[in-house]
Each structure stands twice: as structure tokens, then as C-alpha cells.
Amino acid sequence: MAREVIWPRALRVSSFNAGLVGNAGEAVSPLTGKAQTLDRSGDRWRFTLTVEDASNNASVAEQAIAEAFIASIRNKNARVWVPVPGALRGSFPASELFTNADFSNGATGWNVQEGTLTVADRVLRLTANRVSGAAPAISQAPAATQYAPLVMRGFLGARNRKGLTLGTYAGGADYSTDAQGLLKKSIFPLTTNAGAAYPAVYDGDGTVTVTGDWLECNFASLSRCALVDNGPNALPYSDQLGNAAWAKAHLTVSENAATAPDGTATADVLVEDNANAQHYIGQQGTRATAAEAIVGYGFFRRGTGARDLRLVVGNASLTDYAQAYFDLGTGAVASVGTNGAGATNARAFSVPIGAGWWFCALVANVQSSADIYLYAEMTSGGVGGYAGDGSSSIVAWRLGAARSSVPTIGAQTTASALAGGAAQPGAILNIKGLPVSTQNLACAGDWCQIGNQFFKLIAPLDSDAAGRGQLSISPNIRTPFADNEPVIFNRPMARMRLVGDVMSWSARPGTSSYQFTFEEALDG
What we know:
The protein is an all-beta fold. It has one helix at 62-73, and strands at 4-6, 15-21, 25-28, 35-38, 44-54, 79-83, 111-113, 115-120, 123-128, 137-140, 150-158, 169-170, 181-187, 197-201, 214-224, 226-228, 247-249, 251-258, 267-272, 276-277, 279-302, 308-314, 321-326, 333-339, 344-354, 357-379, 386-387, 393-403, 426-432, 447-450, 453-457, 469-477, 486-488, 493-498, 505-508, 511-520. Strands 17, 18, 19, 21, 22, 23, 24, 25, 26 and 28 form a ten-stranded antiparallel sheet that branches. A hairpin with a 2-residue loop joins strand 8 (115-120) and strand 9 (123-128). The protein starts with a strand and ends with a strand.
């Protein structure tokens, strides 16, 4: 496995050169000179960073830090995390939430458990002193925006232990075992506090005596992020509401009887009967057994009459669920709430689509269960369970439910569910968890990091009223991302390797200059 190294925060960059190395195929006719080209994956970034006139006589011993960095890289087998200079031009709120995240003010702001903290060259070291079963750790508990996804990162190292548990977690035992290097963890705060955020934990399993051992944290960060949106849908037949998979009560479904938001004749008309009862459709899907956030969603508009919508999401027993009432005339969320102790933190969203259509979504945290249930009910005058007239209707399209803390774009399903959504290759990526209804959250020329891949935006990023948007990026995605992978705008980094086999530097009395040329590593 390749070794991981990170650019030292204390090492000043004098100049930075960037380039994109293309990997297109080309064939040129020797007779006519006509060229044929083929776009293929493998485009990668090349960065050259220069450190000029580094000295050990300054407040930071740059010369020693640079030479230690060179020695730690050693050769092309190392993977080097390289930050890119420059600020985000867009308005995305990606500011750092940790106090003194770069350790420029020593250990100020950091809490320590079972140990002592020291800082040298902006690297924090925890020397363990276990007197109980608790794990040595450093942490903070910063304020955060409610219902806004966060990403926590730490570049961690430790020595002399097997069975080491080292990682990042928040408010629970969620570690990365036997791991060192750059680790990340998604957090979704349900209040305005991020909770106990631990970018570094040593011996988290509590089974090893570690007094006198140590861990190092070269990099720590907690910031708001966006999330990859693969459009997960745990329910089959999203566009075929007449299918037997959808339970129906006191209404009939006319499939493909109306024009859908995408312009195709695939929307279904739901017509109530004459009963004095609830008029609804619903479907039960499956999910991993866990207490978590789920979302129910669909596209709706009024048909004949003035009927509106009640959306319910929860477990199949419907003893604990969230509900929201939507006015399909104005798109307003009339009310939102929960039933039972097992459903909390309900929030509803309505996005205008045009031609009377609304995308309606309801998110809630629900109790542990192996199922997920979506229920869409016609309402009259803001209430369900009324006497139908046999003709009033609403029109619906692409209904679904998924494991997600924020509204998702929703994938079309047929006979099978798409619990993880659909993979997104190419240069356009659907994302979610953005500030709602905002233009220019990021601008052309801004950088972002997703997983181990590094991108430059080539168009502005805007969001809709449900916090969803599209990233236009370069180069193309090499390996599609899992749903909910963090999209990082705060201090994004590229995972790179050395271009050459020889690392050298020039020296003058008292100072040295260094040049590093890296190329993006395509192995991750």
C-alpha cells in the first residue's frame, strides 16, 4: 500500500504552477494529416510548488521542515496530499469551524482526553497518559448550522502499536481501525452544535495500555460540505403508480395520462372515488436496520378540482412517522410534524418545477427498522379523510423514498429499487445538502475535492429550494462516487505523487530553495 504524506502547514509556498495533463488518444493520417481523437479517462493535474529562501532563522524553521518533508516522501510510492492556494469565489459557507485548526496558536482551543498536548512546527502531538479506560483523544465542540452536512478531516499518525484504532468520529464509537493518513467523517447536526468532534483518537478500542505513546495530528478540519446525490430510491416502479407494488385506497390510477415534468407522457392521474375515507397510495421498501434519517419525495400537481397533498414517511407500521401538508396551488408547506416518539426532526421542502408541478420532499429521523414507507394522500381543504366526489384528482410522477438526511433528486426505478442510486460518470455531478435557493455558491475556476479526486469548476453552482444543485467539473470523474460522499470546498487537497525519481534543492549561506513537482495519483 502506498504511504501517505501531507504538505506541511508550516511550509510557505512562494509560487504555485498548475497544469492539466490530458490523456486523449490521437491518430494522424500520414497522407492527409487529418487527425482523429478519442476522449478517454486519465486526465490528471500536475502541480509545481516552489519554496524560496527557506531559513531556519525565521519564526518557523522552514529549511528543516522542507528537508524532513522530502525525506518522508522518499520516492514515487508516496501519495502526497497537496492543498491548492486561493479562496473560494462563491458564497458557499465553507469556513473552518475548528478554532486554531492549523495549530498556529499552539494547542489553544483544543480539548485533550487522557494525555498532554504539545505543538511543534504546527503539528499537534498527544502524549498518552491513560489512567482509565477512556481513549486518548483531542476534540472540540463547535457551533454548526442545523441540518447542514459537515465533513471532518484529520491527517493522523502514531507509533509503536498494533491493533491501533485511529480515526475521526462525533458523539459515538465510529472509528477507522488500524488507519493512518488522511481520514474523513461526515456529520449531520440535528441542532446548532456539532457535538463532540474528535479529529484524532488513539487506541479507541480501550484494550491496550498506551501510557507514554503518542499520536500526531498534522491537519484537522471541520467545515460545511455538500453531498453527492446519486438519486437513491428504495421503492420500485417510481413512474408506474398503477403497479400492484403500490397499495391504493379509494382512488384509481390512470397511468401515462398526463405530461410529466420532463415533457414525456409518463405522469399518472390519481382520481378519488365517492367514499368518505382517506384517498391514498403507498409503498413499503427495505433498508438497513438503523436509526437514521429518511426522505420521501415525488412530483405533484393539481388535476381536476382543488385537491392538495399529505406526504407521510416512516416505517411500515405507521406508528412513528413524519407528515407534511402541501398546498398544490401555491406550493406552500401548510404544516409539518411527527407522530409517535420514534420520529423526530421533520422538515419539508417544496420546489417549483413549472406548469403547476411541485417537487415535494419530507425528511425525518426515524427509529431503527428494516423497512421504509412512503404514503401520498389526497387532501381537501387541508384535511384528509373526506367525502370524495368521484372526479377530483391530482397528478403524480416519480415517487420514492431513500436513506438521506437531505432531499435527493430521486432516481427512476422499474422492477428493482436503487437503494444507492445511479452512478454518475462524466463531467456533471448532482449534489445535495446545499444552502437553499442560492446562486453562485461556487464559481467557475473554484476548486473542490470529492473522495480522492480533485476538480476545477467550469460553471457556477446554484441550488434550488431543496438544496440540490449540479457541479460542472473538469477533468471527468474517473471512478463514480457513492451516494452521500462529501463534496469539500474548504481547503480541498489533491492526492498526488512525485513526477521524478530525484528530489534535490539549492542552498546558499543560511537559506535554501526547493521545488516539488507532483502529478495526480490515479489509483484512488
